[in-house]
C-alpha cells in the first residue's frame, strides 16, 4: 500500500530567488484579453499558469497582490458573473490566466454548461499550461465544488497546486485542522502537486513564494 504524499507547506525562496521573482512581477504586467471561446485564445507561445477557485475565494485579490496592482484583476460580488477566461501578460515570459469563479448558484443553466465546456476544452487542450493553482479558502477547507475542479484537472492531466487564501483569518490550531482536511482531500488526486502554498493577500504572506514558483516554471 502506497503512502499518500504528505503535502508539506512550500518553503520560502532564498533571497536571490525572491528578489528575481519580485522584479519579474514588478515589470510589465498587462491585461491582454478576455476569452469566451477556444478560437479566441492567444498563441501558446510561452508558459502559462491559471488560477481557479470558487466564487469569493479571493482570487482577484491574490492576482492583484502578486502583481502589486490593485485594479488589475477585478472582483465580482456576484457568483458566476464573470464568464471569460482572462489573460494577463507577465513581461514577455509568461501568461497569467484568471479562470471564472466556480459555484454558479445565480447563473442560468445554459451559461453554466457553456462555461464548463470551455473550461474542459481549455484545460485539456492548452499545451502551454504548466500548472493550475486551485485556491481554497482557509476558513472553509476543500468543498465539493473544489473537488469537482480537481477531478477535471486529474482527467485533463494538468498538474495543480493548492493555494490556501485568507490564512491570516485563522488561529494556528484552526489552520492545522484545515490543513489536515486539505491534505486528506489532495491525497486522492493524482494531478495534485505535493506542496501547499499558504497566502494572505492582505498581509502579503506567501506572495514571494508563489511568485518564485510561477517564475520558475518554464
TrEMBL record:
SUPFAM superfamilies: P-loop containing nucleoside triphosphate hydrolases. The keyword Metal-binding applies. GO terms for molecular function: GTP binding; metal ion binding. Signal peptide: none annotated. It holds the Pfam family MMR_HSR1. PROSITE patterns: G_ENGB. The keyword Chloroplast does not apply. Its cofactor is Mg(2+). Keywords: Cell cycle, Cell division, GTP-binding, Magnesium, Metal-binding, Nucleotide-binding, Septation. GO terms for cellular component: cytosol. Residues 45-218 form the EngB-type G domain. GO terms for biological process: division septum assembly. Belongs to the TRAFAC class TrmE-Era-EngA-EngB-Septin-like GTPase superfamily. EngB GTPase family. NCBIfam families: GTPase_YsxC. Necessary for normal cell division and for the maintenance of normal septation. HAMAP family: GTPase_EngB. This is Probable GTP-binding protein EngB. It comes from Alloyangia mangrovi. The gene is engB.
Amino acid at each position: 500500500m502506497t503512502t499518500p504524499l504528505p503535502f508539506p507547506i512550500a518553503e520560502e525562496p532564498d533571497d536571490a530567488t525572491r528578489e528575481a521573482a519580485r522584479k519579474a512581477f514588478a515589470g510589465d504586467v498587462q491585461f491582454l484579453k478576455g476569452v469566451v471561446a477556444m478560437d479566441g485564445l492567444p498563441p501558446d507561445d510561452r508558459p502559462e499558469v491559471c488560477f481557479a477557485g470558487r466564487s469569493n475565494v479571493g482570487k482577484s485579490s491574490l492576482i492583484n497582490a502578486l502583481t502589486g496592482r490593485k485594479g488589475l484583476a477585478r472582483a465580482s460580488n456576484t457568483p458566476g458573473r464573470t464568464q471569460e477566461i482572462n489573460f494577463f501578460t507577465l513581461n514577455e515570459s509568461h501568461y497569467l490566466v484568471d479562470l471564472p469563479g466556480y459555484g454558479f448558484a445565480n447563473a442560468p443553466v445554459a451559461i453554466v454548461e457553456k462555461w464548463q465546456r470551455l473550461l474542459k476544452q481549455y484545460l485539456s487542450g492548452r499545451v502551454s499550461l504548466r500548472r493550475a493553482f486551485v485556491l481554497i479558502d482557509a476558513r472553509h477547507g476543500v468543498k465539493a465544488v473544489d473537488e469537482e475542479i480537481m477531478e477535471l484537472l486529474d482527467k485533463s492531466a494538468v498538474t495543480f497546486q493548492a493555494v490556501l487564501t485568507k490564512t491570516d483569518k485563522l488561529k494556528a490550531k484552526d489552520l492545522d485542522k484545515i490543513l489536515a482536511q486539505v491534505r486528506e482531500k489532495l491525497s486522492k488526486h493524482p494531478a495534485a502537486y505535493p506542496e501547499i502554498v499558504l497566502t494572505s493577500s492582505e498581509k502579503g504572506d506567501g506572495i514571494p513564494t508563489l511568485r518564485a514558483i510561477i517564475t520558475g516554471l518554464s
